[in-house]
Design brief:
451 residues, binds NADPH dihydro-nicotinamide-adenine-dinucleotide phosphate, 31% helix, six-stranded antiparallel β-sheet, Enolase-like, domain 1, FAD/NAD(P)-binding domain, 3 domains, 12 helices, alpha/beta
């Protein structure tokens, strides 16, 4: 049977573009890709990239404060959201064009269209045309989830935040995960009064000691945090959102930002009709090769709800292309994936939390919490933390948790050692780089706890 393409990719985000490019340019496959919104997907257009640029913008007031602590005269001035947004839009246009060019240069045919699956080898584009392919890759990502309650239509999500005409003066952020905590810090840094509600402790799934330090410092900087609270209803009066919470409080905000998790984007994609098995939350069920129960259909990235991180989607897309179109079958190792939460202070984490490690067996815990030289000199109260969780019997480092400026940069390096199975003795055999914050990772001699 002859097909229009060897591979049809649905979704032009991190996983999809990597798979398409590698299949076409390295393995000579005839590839098409359909994207219904903008090339680059969540990470580039409404996630990691614009978020990180906002993190940089929001850090400026504390940098100015620090600068003054070093004897310079400097004024914070005011933040011009319109000017920032114009630059941001131009940057995203530039990046989107690079992603599109990357596909075209690799020989991939790009359709600016929604595509739905109509069979094991066929997709339908929005104009009704049908394309056939030997393999279909579903890489449609996820979308923000907002729970159902009276007035849910009055909230915004991370999809909307980059497109606001004006910054709110007072915002309620609901949620306590990556996105909620990052935007609480960003908006606070940009001068917005931030109140944050979550049903449970913030950053609940992370190491308790690390998250406590982050949350304490978020609160100390002026973010008003309420845990054990949910929104019961929101009423819109003019441009004001009147929020009633489960504790009976009634408060007014200019915007309410919901960041209560993301769900796979499979609604109306035709997968069930094509016989593809989905999990109860709509995620595409795949095996370790990213293959679904329909042999010609694969899925990578957030839509599979394995680990919702861009670099993981990229790995999955690349491994899929090498496996199906190259001579190098590869599975993705989802163990010891490091990540960073771009709060202020920043958080870098890899491996098990202390609680998870303890549940597996005896551990030794090394923690160093201190005021770093740079901010301490400037008079700031900031504290940082370096933490290693070590398996007692083998002395292998099972978890590393860093709360510090540039923790994301540090954890990337530590993750290499952890991936190699490094022991505490091997960390200690590494001579410190002085004076740095990260040197504590190789100089902690005595466990603070045996558990
Ligand atoms: P998270 O899963 O990180 O956090 C969701 C939060 O919402 C939790 O605090 C959760 O509370 C709360 N929540 C969930 N459901 C409800 C509900 N029905 N009512 C009230 N609260 C609720 O999701 P995010 O949306 O923050 O981010 C999605 C994913 O995107 C992340 O998991 C991450 O993988 C990725 N991401 C990564 C980033 C990075 O690498 N820096 C940045 C941004 C996103 P509870 O703890 O009780 O479950």
């Amino acid at each position: 049977m002859s097909f229009d393409y060897d591979l049809f990719v649905i979704g032009g985000g991190s996983g999809g573009v990597r798979a398409a490019r590698i299949a076409a340019s390295e393995h000579g496959a005839r590839v098409a890709l359909a994207e219904e919104y903008r090339m680059g997907g969540t990470c580039v257009i409404r996630g990691c990239v614009p978020k990180k640029l906002m993190v940089y913008a929001s850090a400026v007031p504390s940098i100015i404060e620090e600068v003054r602590g070093y004897g310079w005269s400097a004024e914070t001035g005011s933040f011009d959201w319109g000017a920032f947004r114009t630059k941001l839009d131009a940057e995203l246009d530039r990046l989107e064009a690079i992603y599109r060019r990357g596909q075209e240069n690799a020989g991939v045919t790009v359709f600016d269209s929604r595509a739905t699956v109509i069979g094991p080898h066929e997709v339908r584009l929005a104009d009704g045309s049908v394309k056939s392919a030997k393999h279909i890759l579903v890489a449609v990502g996820g979308r923000p989830f907002v729970p159902d309650f009276a007035g849910a239509e009055h909230v915004i999500t991370s999809n909307d935040i980059f497109k606001l005409d004006t910054l709110p003066k007072r915002v309620l952020i609901v949620g306590g995960g990556y996105i909620a905590c990052e935007f609480a810090c960003i908006l606070h840094g940009l001068g917005v009064k931030v109140v944050q509600y979550n049903r449970s402790p913030l950053l609940r799934s992370f190491d308790t000691e690390a998250r406590d330090l982050i949350v304490d410092q978020m609160a100390a900087r002026g973010i008003e945090i309420h845990t054990g609270v949910v929104v019961q209803s929101i009423e819109k009066r003019g441009e004001t959102r009147v929020v009633t919470c489960s504790r009976g409080c009634v408060e007014e905000f200019d915007q309410v930002l919901y960041a209560t998790g993301r769900v796979p984007n499979t609604d109306g994609l035709g997968l069930e009709a094509a016989g593809v098995q989905l999990a109860p939350n709509g995620a595409v069920t795949v095996d370790e090769w990213s293959q679904t129960n329909v042999p010609s259909i694969y899925a990578v990235g957030d839509v599979t709800d394995r680990i919702q991180l861009t670099p993981v989607a990229i790995r999955e897309g690349h491994a899929f292309a090498d496996t199906v179109f190259g001579a190098t079958p590869r599975k993705v190792d989802h163990d010891l994936v490091a990540s960073a939460v771009f709060t202020q202070p920043e958080f870098g984490t890899c491996g098990l939390t202390e609680d998870e490690a303890r549940a597996r067996g005896p551990v030794e815990v090394y923690v160093s919490t201190f005021k770093p030289m740079k901010t301490s000199f400037a008079g700031a109260p900031d504290r940082v933390m370096m933490k290693l969780v070590v398996e007692k019997e083998t002395q292998v480092v099972l978890g590393c948790h860093i709360v510090a400026p540039d923790a994301g940069e540090m954890i990337q390096m530590v993750a290499i050692a952890m991936k190699m199975g490094a022991t505490k003795a091997q960390f200690d055999a590494t001579v410190a780089v002085h004076p740095t914050m990260a040197e504590e990772l190789v100089t902690m001699r005595t466990p603070v706890r045996h558990a």
